[in-house]
Amino acid sequence: MKKTIVYKLTDNIGRTRGMTQWGNNVSHTAKGDGKELCSNGFIHYYTHPLLAVLLNPIHADFTYPKLWEAEASGEIIDEALKSVCKTLTTIKEIPLPEISGVQKIAFGILCAKEVCDDKMWNSWADKWLSGKDRSNESANAAHVVYAADYNIINASAYVAAYASAYASAFAASVMIYANNYAVCSAAANAAANAAYDDFDKSIDFIALAEKAMTYK
User: Fold this and answer.
1) DSSP labels for 121-171?
2) Cα–Cα dist 185/15, whole Å
3) pLDDT (0 to 100) of residue 156
4) For labelling, which of 1, 74, 171, 204 has a CA lying 20 to 30 Å from the CA of 180?
5) Distance, CA of 122 to CA of 49 (rounded, Å)
6) Number of H helices and number of E strands within the chain?
7) 133-186 tens-digit pLDDT
8) Are 82 and 37 in contact (CB under 8 A)?
9) What is the pTM assigned to this prediction?
C-alpha cells in the first residue's frame, strides 16, 4: 500500500472535526462513502508545513493549532490547496512554522500574480514585494480599483483573478496582519480557482510559500 509523508493540523489538544483525537502514532480511517474532498469519505491533510499554516484560516481555522508529521495511505488525492486520503496516521508533533505578517501578505500577492495580468496592479505588487512602496495609500488605491472592477466583471476567469488581486491588496492596505491572515489565504484560494477553472495552468503553491518566507 502506498504511503506518503504529509502534515496534519489540529487544535491545541490534538483534535479535529467531530472531536477526532490525534496524537503520536494515532491512525484513523474515513468510514464514509463520500466522493468529494470535503466529505466523510476522506481525511484532510497538507503537503507542506507552510501550507498548513497559511491555509488554516480558510479551512479548519484553528486558533491555536498544532502541526503533526503524518503518513497518508489508501486512496490519496492531492489538489492545489487541499489534499485528502482514506487513512491517516499522525506520527509526531512538529514545530509550527513561524510566519510574519509581511510574509503572509507576500504569499497572497505572489499567488495573485500567478493569474492577474493587469499592468497597474502588478506594478503596485512588484513595488510592495521589493519594499519600494508598502504605503497604506498605494495599497488602498489598488484595493479600491479592484473592488470596483470585481463588481462589474462577470467572466469567471476574471472574477477569480480579480478576487485574488482584490484580497491581497486589501490585506496590504490595512496592514493589520492578524485580521488579514484569512484574506491572504483567500487570495491563494481565488488564484487556485482561477488557475484550475479558466487559465489551464497549475500553480506551485509550495514554491510560492517558500518564496514568501524570504520577504522581510
Assistant:
1) HHHHHHHHHHTS---HHHHHHHHHHHHHHHHH--SHHHHHHHHHHHHHHHH
2) 22
3) 43
4) 204
5) 28
6) 7, 7
7) 988 788 777 766 655 444 434 334 445 565 676 667 777 766 544 455 676 777
8) yes
9) 0.85
